[in-house]
Design a protein that fits this description.
Layout: H1 2-31, E1 59-61, E2 67-69, E3 75-81, H2 90-99, E4 105-108, H3 118-128, E5 138-140, E6 147-148, E7 154-155, H4 158-162, E8 178-182, E9 185-190, H5 198-213, E10 219-224, H6 238-248, E11 253-256, E12 262-265, E13 268-270, E14 288-290, E15 295-302, E16 305-312, E17 318-325
Length: 326
């Protein structure tokens, strides 16, 4: 009996020690409380121009809340970036701003930061400063990397400080799920990472269905982080699919990221602006699929035609192009 008690006590002690070691190693992933990386440079205060502001560079807003381009009213030109993960520096953003010199605004579809900490926010601010992107408005949605992982999944407080997006989303998602009306185009942004409960998905479905149905003849472009159709193996999102697939099929274009692949199966498009890291699905699953390169996109609305062009980030080579007309 004594020997058995000693064995049980030793086993208990080993389990406690082993559990403590595992918790120490996995503290960041489980509880979302890592040590903050220390920013060693001089901090900067950076202002993002967003469509929740009263005034936006290059645009005026009419009484119906529609944003009108003041420089070239008949053309809307949007630069689109996929997952970045803090992987672009000042030279990269400066190059992009010169490649699309007439962009009216730019959009980023989540995982802009590697993690939602002050270090990476400062890194982004220094990277964007003194480029043309510094002076035009941005549309962006949070990805999973902007959320702190752990027992309580939470969007980094930096998000509210950095971006003043329109607060016209459904209950609980007013600032991360929203829409912006342009002349001829309704741009809808969805925070898919924040969806948790059944009523979140139900409210999203109703809100999205009404927005697309009531677009008043405008093109409808939806941007979200998690794709409906995954371009990578083992990365399907059944909850997003079931709650969004019906209304999204009525949209003109649905932009997503997360999978670090480029894929097009209209209206669904995935894009990445960082190194590919996930194994792609079978190539024939999509109409067009990029396997190894990283990309940026340009959305242009001219003469009632919406054009999507996809370029390789390395050399600006046109990789894909399609036109959408009503």
């Amino acid at each position: 009996m004594t020997t058995r008690r000693i064995c049980l006590s030793s086993l208990t002690l080993l389990l406690i020690i082993g559990g403590a070691i595992v918790c120490a190693l996995r503290w960041q992933a489980w509880f979302g409380m890592p040590q903050e990386p220390i920013w060693k440079g001089q901090k900067t205060t950076y202002t993002f121009h967003c469509f929740g502001d009263d005034t936006v560079p290059g645009f005026v807003r009419d009484e119906q809340g529609v944003w009108q381009d003041t420089i070239c009213p008949d053309t809307l030109d949007i630069l689109l970036l996929g997952d970045v993960h803090s992987g672009l520096n000042h030279a990269d953003y400066d190059t992009l701003s010169h490649r699309v010199p007439h962009a009216d605004c730019y959009a980023q579809l989540g995982d802009w930061l590697e993690r939602g900490y002050e270090y990476y926010a400062q890194h982004l601010a220094f990277a964007l400063q003194n480029t043309r992107l510094d002076s035009i408005p941005v549309l962006t949605c949070p990805g999973n990397h902007e959320y702190h992982k752990g027992l309580k999944r939470q969007l980094t407080p930096l998000w509210q400080q950095m971006f003043n997006h329109p607060k016209n989303g459904f209950a609980g998602f007013e600032n991360t799920t929203y829409y912006v009306d342009f002349q001829g185009l309704r741009f809808i942004v969805i925070d898919t990472q924040g969806l948790r409960w059944l009523h979140d998905y139900t409210r999203l479905n109703t809100w999205l269905t009404d927005l697309i149905r009531q677009a008043n003849g405008r093109y409808t472009v939806v941007m979200m982080h998690h794709p409906v159709y995954s371009a990578s193996k083992g990365r399907v999102n059944p909850a997003v699919y079931l709650s969004c697939i019906t209304p999204l099929r009525q949209a003109d274009l649905v932009l997503a990221g997360h999978d670090h692949q480029y894929a097009r199966q209209l209206p669904f498009v995935e894009i990445t602006s960082t190194t590919t890291s996930h194994q792609p699905r079978f190539k024939h699953y999509h109409e067009r699929q990029g396997m190894t390169d990283v990309y940026y996109q340009r959305l242009t609305l001219v003469n009632d035609t919406l054009t999507m062009r996809t370029y390789r980030l390395a050399d600006a080579l046109l990789y894909d192009e399609c036109c959408i007309t009503h």
